[in-house]
Design brief:
TF_MADSbox_sf; 2 strands; transcription; 11% strand; SRF-like; nucleus; mainly alpha; 2 domains
């Protein structure tokens, strides 16, 4: 049996978009925490609301807490992304090779939308 394909699209009405975001935001943070606990992995979440409010969540053995009050736009978020990518590359190089089935942590953050 095939699965029904779900097509998502942008919510055009700004008020509806804000309402939907506020209802789902806490659930995303909760699911991020669950994923980190169950898979014993580091999680970093950075979200910008439709109104520009920043929400962050971090579950890491060595926690990274960005100074979100300094992130005011996408360009500044990209700068933090660059910093995080550099740090992740250094950590990756320091790890012992785990073979072909190793998860490449950099792939998830560098994927384009």
């Amino acid at each position: 049996m095939g699965r029904n394909k779900v097509v998502m699209k942008k919510i055009e009405d700004p008020e509806s978009r804000k309402h939907f975001y506020s209802k789902r935001k806490d659930g995303l943070v909760k699911k991020s925490n669950e994923l980190g606990v169950v898979c014993h992995t580091n999680i970093a979440l950075l979200m910008f609301s439709p109104t520009g409010e920043v929400t962050t969540y971090s579950r890491a053995k060595s926690s990274y807490e960005p100074q979100v009050e300094n992130i005011n736009n996408v360009e500044e978020a990209d700068a933090y992304k660059g910093y995080l990518l550099g740090a992740m590359e250094r950590v990756q190089r320091s790890k012992e090779p785990l073979g072909d089935e190793r998860f490449d942590e950099l792939n998830w953050i560098t994927m384009e939308r």
